[in-house]
Here is the input.
Amino acid sequence: MAESDKVFAGSIPKFYDTLMVPLIFAAYAGHTAQRVAAASPHSVLETAAGSGVVARALAPTLGADARYVVTDLNQPMLDYAAARQGRDARIEWRQADALDLPFEDTSFDVVCCQFGVMFFPDRVTGYAEARRVLKPGGRFVFTVWDRIEENDFADDVTNAVATVFPHDPPRFLARTPHGYHDIAVIRQDLRRAGFAEIGIETRAEVSRAASARDAATAYCQGTPLRNEIEARDAGLLQLATDRATAAIAARHGEGPVAGKIQAHVIVATG
Ligand SMILES: C[S@@+](CC[C@H](N)C(=O)[O-])C[C@H]1O[C@@H](n2cnc3c(N)ncnc32)[C@H](O)[C@@H]1O
Here is the structure.
């Protein structure tokens, strides 16, 4: 993973929350929240919470005396999330690296992480940290994207942006968000971290945007793909977004667009 892959800062939080979240993350947030709420938890830790889409779905389902600690590596994402959430005395916002959690052992009933583990430089360590802070019998609920070919717009954007930089194509989307989808590897990593019971559901959803340009702008400007494009030539960000727009429009039409997205939803215990 490139160092820039985990940098969600600058103008990324705003583009991420306003364009990326409605495009692909909101579709899974309700489902993630349901999996967490099914445990009727009194204490929940969320890691890699980003701009807070799961927090907005989950907080209303938790009890009045619940403790919900919402964390992310990048403070700008958390700031964005906290501002959108509004006051809620049950929620603590805290900057934290999921690989080195600043919490005591056996503190939480549930740990959840929506589309964050792909960014962990060492997943076994991240999973072991989640397990360490779980109470006995607690559950770890998380999601990862399936391979990029199962995720239409991400694939279109990656192929289109490659035409702008043919000798050094930016591969962020294939390498990181869509780079950890092998169920056998996920099971093995969870077992190495000590989890015994592992359930995995592969779930397809539909990604929708008002236009091909909105979808292209979300991927090119609201994710670390932007860092990768700008590192090559900041002056080509608009051209890359235009090429991605044309590619999505060619496959999915002018006007509102819809494409397939697919992810694995994992619940680990023990
Ligand atoms: C694709 S976003 C997902 C955000 C959110 N969970 C959602 O569903 O919209 C990935 C998030 O992982 C965070 N992240 C990356 N590395 C991390 C780490 N080591 N520990 C905690 N968070 C991390 C990033 O800051 C970013 O907010």
Notes: The longest helix spans residues 12-37. Residues 156 and 251 are 8 Å apart (CA to CA).
